[in-house]
Amino acid sequence: MVTNGGSALIKALELEGVEVMFGLPGGAILPVYDPIIDSPIRHILVRHEQGAGHMAEGFAHATGRPGVAMVTSGPAATNIVTPLCDAYMDSVPMVVITGQVPTPAIGTDAFQECDTVGITRSVTKHNELVTRAEDIPLVIRQAFHIATTGRPGPVLVDIPKDIVDPANPRSALDWYWPTDAEVASSLPGYKPTTKGHAKKIRDAAELILSARRPIIYAGGGILKARAAEALRELAELTDISVVTTLMARGAFPDDHPLCLGMPGMHGNYTAVTAMQEADLLIALGSRFDDRVTGKVDAFAPEAKVIHVDIDPAELGKVRRPDVPIVGDCRLVIEELVTALRDLSGGDIAAAQPDRSTWRSTISGWQERYPLVYEQSAGDDLLKPQFVLEQLWERAPEDCIVASGVGQHQMWTSQYWRFNHPYTWVNSGGLGTMGFSVPAAIGAKVGRPDRMVWAVDGDGCFQMTAQELVTAATERIPVKVAILNNAYLGMVRQWQEMFYDERYSEVYLSPDLPDYVKWSEAMGCVALRVESPEEVGPAIDKANEIDDRPVVLEFRTDSNEKVFPMVPAGRSNSDIVVDPSQPQPGGAQ
Questions:
Q1: Domain at 233, CATH number
Q2: 304 and 419: one domain?
């Protein structure tokens, strides 16, 4: 069958199972938009290309399937660089298609031309400029294969206008669809290792059976590998406590007695200190991020390390492991469970040393240093922690929550109770302000059966709020909670604690813009909440509305800071807890 490049591209997306895509048309990609009219693929028209990328990310976070975005050339391509980098840092499967000027014009500084492949090379798992229409089916198949296998990540396909324009002879091709074998043979250097090395797995099992103070350090790779059930089996089988990083919240239930919560710069005291005092860290799909380790050479000084990751580049990058294992987390954990049973003769509890002292120590930390805050009474400003607790208590058990970046992100991770995987959508590695509104929209598109809340700060909200027009137009009923403290809160906290309260360029007016009027102008229902007694009823009202987006503006206390906190560049042993609590040794 003879077809053209634009129609072939849309047909290829359909055959890859794409049901929805996010995008914004323009000149170079216009020929591809024409066949969308006759396609079953739902196209969601965004208000900014960055929004398209973050929506694709939110879709992928919530569903596990690759998100798809399509934009035009030049500034559209540069606008989607931030979501590409965000997805690259957080291992999010995504396929982005960008238009490019016609092949003869490449390199001439043509209108809306840029070197998209060159610009995005360092922030994509793979990118490619397609130069022949007949290559489109294979390139699209390769893109989805690369994005979703091994360590997931974003793939960009840059397509010149002439090879998709039916009016141009260069766009003609005989339709074909490559087989799995043809895709594999076309990528001879791409062979991710999924099965762990048998001897290394046995070595890891031996270390686990001999450790007296072990901790499972679960990262986002657990979720990418669909390994939440395997992780729970390992933890319960060995009776080892689990910390879940910012990217792994929900991978292990917060209400499980072995769950210690989030470690890191703003993790809870028990999670941070348990890692610091452990004699064995079982790192599963985690990358020893600087926000987790603090000062690297002072991190967990007595701990041996088992490190499991599908990306061999992560092993030894920050901390040299005693037992490195390259492989898919789920498969390796399952193999590790088998090895533990074999080595212990089936009685794992009897084969391990007495860890009652370690368990007692952990319980003591939990009792002495819980997360705390004081809710003001009367007409005082709201405490953001109280708002988060109320949002969580009044949401369904399987509600999905997306966050922006800053104080509200940390409070959400601390005070929302994550008992299900794939219910937490956030920007971890890149820390992208403005992430939550478009990401929540993408998550709701992917999981229309779920309630989706976006928790945002006033600074973050002003960066991408226009995508609520997309949500209202497309009838995507997301809910947004703005914690309005009139500041760039996290920056203000650092300036207060480390810059002698010299507040440089962090103040944002509490009243400008008017978030209620702005949200209503974008087609949303909007309410302002200023006192504790208003919080519950406002949330209940928002939860009842399911035919349009809802925005709640919570006027929160600008003086509130996120605790605990490990000061930048300091050891995790120097963790600072809430001022109402006795400071542990080493903290200033």
A1: 3.40.50.1220
A2: no
Beta-carbon contacts of residue 436 (< 8 Å; ≥ 6 apart): 402, 403, 404, 425, 426, 454, 455, 456, 460, 480
For 499, residues 6+ apart whose C-beta sits below 8 A from its C-beta are none
Same domain, 180 and 89: yes
From the CB of residue 380, how many other CB atoms can be counted at a distance below 10 Å?
Answer: 12
Is 325 in the same domain as 403?
A: no
CA 226 to chain centre: 15
Domain identity same for 103 and 204: no
Reply yes or no on whether the pLDDT at 378 is more than 70.
no
Tell me what the mean pLDDT of segment 327-348 comes to: 94
CB 99 within 8 A of CB 159: yes
Taking the CA of residue 464 as centre, how many other CA atoms within 13 Å lie in the half-sphere pointing to its CB? 33
**What's the mean pLDDT in 103-132?**
97
Give catalytic residue positions.
49, 111-112, 161, 490
What CATH number is attached to the domain comprising 422?
A: 3.40.50.970
Looking at residue 588, what is its pLDDT?
45
Long-range contact pairs involving 343-347 (C-beta distance under 8 Å, separation at least 24): 343/202, 343/205, 343/206, 343/209, 344/209
Judged on CB neighbours under 10 Å (0-12, 13-18, 19+), 449 is exposed
Residue 539: give the domain boundaries. 384-563
**501 and 390 share a domain?**
yes
Maximal CA-CA distance, the chain: 76
**Number of residues that make up the chain:** 588
In terms of Cα–Cα distance, which of 262, 548, 269 is closest to 409?
262
**E-assigned strands of 132-208?**
154-160, 172-174
Report the mean per-residue pLDDT for the chain: 95
Laid out side by side, the sheet with 525-529 consists of: 424-425, 400-403, 452-457, 479-484, 550-555, 525-529
Q: 248 in a domain, yes or no?
A: yes
For the chain, percent of residues with pLDDT exceeding 70 = 98
Two structure tokens written together for 516: 């209620």
pLDDT of 426 above 90: yes
Q: Could you tell me if 240 and 222 are in contact, meaning their C-beta atoms sit under 8 angstroms apart?
A: no
Within this chain, do residues 182 and 202 fall inside the same structural domain, yes or no? no
326 and 426 share one domain: no
Q: How many CB atoms lie within 10 A of CB 565?
A: 23
The pLDDT value given to residue 150: 96
Q: What angle do CA 286, 573, 385 make, to 5 degrees?
A: 75
Count of the separate structural domains present in the chain: 3
Give me the amino acid identity at 418: F
Number of Cα atoms under 13 Å in the Cβ half of residue 295: 13
Strand partners, 555: 484
Residue 379 predicted with pLDDT over 70: no
